[in-house]
Specification:
3-stranded antiparallel sheet
């Protein structure tokens, strides 16, 4: 069963939904658990949620997250 969690882009740690609501530009929501794939790594912007390139993620590590999808 998959569930939705929030993660800080700066630290990579899970945060509460209240903390994510206070800092929407530096947190992302993702689905974890059974039923979610994890075959490849992708980079996302924490501000927009859009996919970004590896070079963009290296230039802006506190504003991007790397996740397995």
């Amino acid at each position: 069963m998959a569930r939705s969690v929030s993660r800080s882009a700066r630290t990579g740690r899970f945060v509460t939904k209240a903390a994510a609501a206070r800092s929407p530009r530096t947190t992302t929501s993702e689905r974890v658990g059974a039923g979610t794939g994890n075959g490849r790594s992708v980079n996302r912007s924490a501000a927009t949620g859009r996919f970004v390139t590896d070079s963009t993620a290296r230039r802006n590590p506190s504003g991007t997250i790397t996740q397995r999808v």
